[in-house]
Design a protein that fits this description.
single chain, mainly alpha, two-stranded antiparallel ribbon, globular, 11 helices, 274 residues
């Protein structure tokens, strides 16, 4: 039986959630899960058709809600609710030529970090010595992305992260192991498997999407060298929309050229000779 591609992301995000909590108890509590997921789905159902004219996408809202639950650390509950609502609303409000430019969950996380740094911090734990949960999730996740034809994006990002980690270790006089360590955590699994591979907020070209992943890793390196703690989220926040806008400009330019050239050829063929 062939798995519906729409179920891949919800199943993977649930696997990351279970693995992270089983290993480290990373969750704020079940009430945070219920609040974030419940509000994400409710917001999707209430606003999607009104804002975009499209049917609600429950799976997408579920992924946003679970991602907020995993990535946000706060002693209070309201950031989980606010992050979920911002993430889902952004898909309908922040649109250009029919597309939303920012990955919804990434935008929600960045908004919380900008607006409420006093109450919010991102998940920062690594798997430590518990390598099996990490390996299982990476293997299953990459295989699922391969079936969805998105694995090249994650692989390009991982390869770039390792390369730029080496560069960072040379520049900052730190060890390569310490620079690579962040990618061994659940936060980076969510980032690399879900955020940078989101079909709605990545460019269509296969090589273009891989190049954008490299650009995200490069900008992340610059943020890390500047000692910005939340480097990967901010890097995607900056690079992602720019890449989409460039793609839209190029598609528009190509479309205009395709119309103008035949028209010019017809005009030249019908023009009277001297």
């Amino acid at each position: 039986m062939k798995l519906d591609r729409r179920l891949i992301a919800p199943l993977l995000i649930t696997l990351v959630l279970a693995g992270a909590h089983w290993s480290f108890g990373v969750l704020r509590g079940y009430e945070a899960i219920a609040l974030a997921v419940g509000l994400a789905i409710a917001t999707e159902l209430a606003t999607r058709r009104v804002l975009t004219g499209q049917p609600a996408q429950i799976a997408s809202a579920y992924v946003s809600g679970i991602s907020i639950t995993i990535l946000v650390r706060s002693p209070v509950l309201w950031p989980y609710a606010l992050g979920a609502v911002i993430s889902v609303l952004s898909k309908g409000v922040l649109r250009f030529r029919g597309r939303h430019l920012w990955n919804p969950t990434n935008l929600g996380i960045c908004a919380l970090l900008f607006l409420a740094p006093f109450a919010v911090a991102p998940l920062s734990v690594q798997w430590g010595n518990n390598v099996w949960p990490m390996l299982v999730i990476w293997i299953i996740g990459l295989n699922a992305l391969r079936l969805a034809k998105r694995a090249h994006i994650t692989l390009a990002y991982i390869a770039s992260f390792f390369a730029f980690a080496f560069v960072r270790s040379l520049i900052s006089d730190s060890t390569f192991v310490s620079e690579v360590a962040p990618i061994t955590g659940p936060m980076y699994q969510l980032f690399a498997l879900f955020m940078i591979t989101d079909p709605k907020t990545t460019v269509h070209s296969r090589w273009g999407a891989a190049l954008v992943a490299v650009a995200v890793a490069f900008v992340e390196m610059l943020f890390r060298l500047a000692e910005v703690i939340y480097a990967p989220f901010y890097a995607l926040f900056v690079v992602g929309p720019i890449a989409l806008l460039v793609e839209m400009w190029w598609q528009s330019r190509t479309a205009r050229a395709a119309v103008v050239e035949p028209a010019a050829a017809v005009q030249g063929a019908t023009a009277p000779s001297a």
